[in-house]
Amino acid sequence: MKKFPLLWAVALVIYALPGYTQSTTTSPVNNASSTLCITHANLIDVSSSKTLADQTIIIEHDRILATGPSKKLKVPAGATIIDATGKYVMPGMTDAHIHFFQTGGLYTRPDGLNLQAVYPYEKDQLWAKEHLSDLMARYLACGITTVVDVGGPFSNFTIRDKVNADPRATNAWVTGPLISTYLPPNLDKKDPPIVKVTTPEEARELVKKQLPYKPDFIKIWYIVLPGMPAESTLQIVKATIEESHAHGLKVAVHATEYETAKLAVTAGADILVHSVDDKELDDDMLQLLKNKHTVYIPTLTVMHGYKRAFTQQFDFPMHDLKYGDPFMLGTLTDLQHIDKSVAGFEYKTLRTRHIIPSKEDTVMHTNLRLAEQAGINVVAGTDAGNIGTLHASSFFTELQAMQQSGLSNREIIRSATINAAKGFGKDKDYGSIEKGKIADLLLLEKDPTQDLNALADIQTIIHRGVQLQAKELLTPTPAILVQQQLNGYNARNIDAFLAPYSDSTSIYDQASGKLLMQGKEQMRQRYAAMFEKAKELHCQLVNRIVMGNTVIDHERVTGVGEKPMEAVAVYTVENDKIVKVSFIH
């Protein structure tokens, strides 16, 4: 804290310089005709599981007017035309398991990791609300045109109304508070995301309390504490399902054990939002799921996010570093400078423990494969918002995990499109490219049925009939660029670290004026060697000041040498790239 006056002194000097400018960004404007035509595309038909060559899709306002062979469909006069020759078109994707009230950062679940002495939970909640628009843009940039919030505070309904009216936000299907058999500590008490009920009558009343908000479904958190039989709270589960069904609402259930999942499905649960992780699904259970038309959302990777954060062993994929919220991603490495007396544990000691039992992980992958083979409706979802599971960017990691379970690319694509729409009763309007449906489409350079990586770098999104470009959705601010390079540094990922820099970046020692490095190649040589050698390298952001196109960071680096190194780094941004860095030691 003593260093902050120096930081402000540097800021005041920079502000007075004649070359100082304020950077501005503008949102792109779509001036297209109300009719949009995509011609000569390879259309991925998720209903027939076929790819149809040379297809034209005609979109009027936000709906698909017609689809068919290009030689048979006449393009309306005055339409905006996208020539998709050699490209692939598929439906927009759905992440069927997210939580708006969670940010994905280190401080978002104080019931599991209470760090409120470092960063108050209220600040994390405020961040989630204030950065909703950015969150939505990140989902769209990842090709996710619909998200399903499977439980949160009553403010979820306000969020749904807001984003569904925003042309640059995803569609949102939501419910209110989780109707729970257990109440975790330290969460919001004013508008709680989880409400414990103790009787069937209380459960019915909580369902009724949500009805005026028109929930898309109801959610049960079926938690059985150690030493308690699963049947002890079954009547609450049954009452919730009965009341919900009486009002035409589907019911999603969190039940990760074989026994609780079977009881919930037998009672009429429509959707299981997690894998069964303690036992393989036997023939009886598979037949029950199929007969009941139960949706199975495997949610394979969420616990790995916790493991990486708690052990500080990160292997951030490039899509997290590129598309994830850089500030929330940045918090995930904070345990390296938080005292263990505050955290309640030493992160290095956890590395030798099995936080996620290998058997549990294997069972989840096996059960997903069994469910798919049995013809059960498998739907993709991440549980985004939990610690280490970033909104939007984590979806591709989940799809990769499903692939590792043995699902084909077509099966994975169906799970993220038509299966989700059918599972939540929305397939009249969503999930496939058909006449009359909402025009949510992705235009891809490569065939995702052959290479799933085609879904990791989507350039063009059609959302509610409007053409959007990913690069325009995610226009970087100077603070975002500087945070992204910091994240790349802490991840020791040389490509992610260098991505925000211009090719001709100059790095100086401010005191002497000496040029330390010039250009990315010199930076690559210097930093790549350090990243490889310093396995515990970590840069703590002590404080940051943003002044237009200049970002001033007070940084403390550990993991190189015996003592921490401190410096003030002044970053200059031009044309969405870092062009200059000056270090003040």
TrEMBL record:
Task: Keyword check for Signal, yes or no.
Answer: yes
Q: Domain of life, per the record?
A: Bacteria
Endpoints of the signal sequence: 1-23
Using the record's annotation, list all stretches that form the SnoaL-like domain.
Answer: 482-580
Q: Which UniProt keywords apply?
A: Hydrolase, Signal
List, in alphabetical order, the Gene Ontology terms for molecular function in this entry.
hydrolase activity, acting on carbon-nitrogen (but not peptide) bonds
Please state every residue range assigned to the domain named Amidohydrolase-related: 88-461
Q: Which PANTHER family match?
A: ALPHA-D-RIBOSE 1-METHYLPHOSPHONATE 5-TRIPHOSPHATE DIPHOSPHATASE (PTHR43135:SF3)
User: What is the protein name given in its UniProt record?
Assistant: Imidazolonepropionase-like amidohydrolase
